[in-house]
Sequence to fold (196 residues):
Amino acid sequence: MLEPRAITVFCGSSSGVDPRYAQTAVAFAEALVARGLGLVYGGGNCGLMGRLADAVLGAGGTVHGVIPDFLVESEHAHTGLTEMLVVRSMHERKATMGDLGGAFVALPGGLGTFEELFEVLTWSQLGIHPKPIGIVEVGGYFDPLQALLDRAVTDGFVEAVDRGRLIADVDSGQLIDRLEATPTRPSSINRRSQGR
Fold:
């Protein structure tokens, strides 16, 4: 069971060119609410971020937004959320989002989404958090990223156990179920330091 009972989601502030991206955001929102889980996200009202938040609210769920003060206007902060936390920096935003959710999920997005996803993967590797991490595959969007991770394992830069921290599924509900069933994984950094 995920604790806290919410999932932190990273996704685009744009909608992308493929309508399946927005459809997946709505499907993920419905799967969250059906399981009694809240949404934690970046607080915007545009792109996939806005579609996701609106769909959770429309289904009767709770949404916690976290946005830095300097992005309130430029990101068009959502004004109808269950809770909006305005913080002072991007670093504080990410730390707060990490604290509020019991798992992390990335939907399609751009540089910010990639950066957030890799940061929580690194935090997991280092033992900073034990929370499961997933991606929703939409039309092969994350295939190049998955191939990069596989190459990093093959070439000796990433351990297989750390590669395995990223759970991928094309079905939102199945992904959430897999995240809820994922046991806590120890830090590979700690294992190396202990000679294991």
Observations:
- Helices lie at 19-34, 47-58, 90-100, 111-126, 143-154, 160-163, 172-181, 188-193.
- The first strand starts at residue 6 and ends at 10.
- Residues 6-193 form a domain with the Rossmann fold fold (CATH 3.40.50.450).
